[in-house]
């Protein structure tokens, strides 16, 4: 059930954002699609498609109808090939799952940096929520939202997204790491986990994740890991449930090939 939990949480996360932000969303046979402002996103189901060519044709028609110039398709089964439609595949990334339970570091090593200089918790007021957005945009980084401006990536209406919480870590009183969590009632997903370059390897991300996980002790947790983040996630109890391939349509003005 690991990958299924992760895929379901991601679909819930994106459709909840679509509802609040006024984006169109579609629940298709074997996929969820969201017509976001910048990148149209498709999340495929956790199981292999019963008819790959039919799914490809449906996606091709959807992108044509939406006049998509930027698109991302997340394929948790790595069965779809979209290269002939003008997409290019990114490296496969681990879909990771953590069972419910207390947060205990599993590496037996000392914390990097001085724990007393690192503080992490939920961002609740406007100042901290703005810092969460800035850290994500600059730390990830998200090029299309740079230079950062408030509301460009996380608009104010995101406060109305059900199950969403924002998290922020400080090092020596300065914002250092941030992420978003989404609780869909079955699992809690971690998204946009980012650390500013000047604060990496100082324990900020570890403190951030510990705080977010501790706030959901009865929920399994899910995330999609980058190569840099995967070792930390494993030390915090995450295990690989599968590999997902992300297909990106190039940042051009042309629509996907028909």
TrEMBL record:
<keyword id="KW-0808">Transferase</keyword>
<feature type="domain" description="N-acetyltransferase">
    <location>
        <begin position="116"/>
        <end position="258"/>
    </location>
</feature>
<dbReference type="Pfam" id="PF13508">
    <property type="entry name" value="Acetyltransf_7"/>
</dbReference>
<dbReference type="GO" id="GO:0016747">
    <property type="term" value="F:acyltransferase activity, transferring groups other than amino-acyl groups"/>
</dbReference>
<dbReference type="InterPro" id="IPR000182">
    <property type="entry name" value="GNAT_dom"/>
</dbReference>
<protein>
    <submittedName>
        <fullName>Acetyltransferase (GNAT) domain-containing protein</fullName>
    </submittedName>
</protein>
<dbReference type="InterPro" id="IPR016181">
    <property type="entry name" value="Acyl_CoA_acyltransferase"/>
</dbReference>
């Amino acid at each position: 059930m690991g990958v299924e939990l992760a895929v379901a949480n991601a679909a819930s996360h994106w459709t909840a954002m679509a509802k609040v932000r006024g984006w169109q969303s579609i629940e298709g046979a074997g996929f969820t699609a969201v017509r976001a402002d910048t990148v149209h996103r498709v999340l495929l189901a956790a199981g292999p498609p019963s008819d790959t060519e039919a799914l490809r044709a449906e996606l091709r028609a959807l992108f044509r109808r939406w006049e998509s110039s930027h698109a991302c398709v997340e394929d948790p089964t790595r069965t779809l090939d979209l290269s002939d439609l003008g997409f290019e595949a990114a490296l496969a990334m681990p879909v990771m799952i953590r069972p419910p339970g207390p947060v205990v570091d599993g590496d037996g090593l000392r914390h990097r940096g001085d724990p007393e200089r690192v503080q992490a918790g939920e961002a609740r007021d406007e100042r901290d929520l703005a810092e969460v957005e800035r850290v994500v945009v600059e730390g990830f980084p998200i090029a299309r939202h740079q230079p950062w401006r408030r509301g460009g990536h996380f608009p104010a209406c995101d406060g109305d997204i059900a199950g969403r919480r924002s998290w922020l870590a400080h090092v020596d009183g300065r914002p250092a790491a941030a992420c978003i969590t989404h609780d869909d009632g079955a699992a809690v997903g971690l998204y946009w986990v980012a650390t500013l370059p000047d604060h990496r390897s100082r324990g900020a991300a570890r403190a951030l994740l510990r705080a977010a996980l501790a706030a959901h002790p009865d929920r399994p947790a899910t995330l999609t890991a980058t190569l840099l983040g995967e070792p930390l996630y494993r030390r915090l109890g995450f295990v690989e449930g599968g590999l997902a391939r992300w297909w990106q349509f190039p940042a051009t003005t042309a629509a996907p090939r028909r």
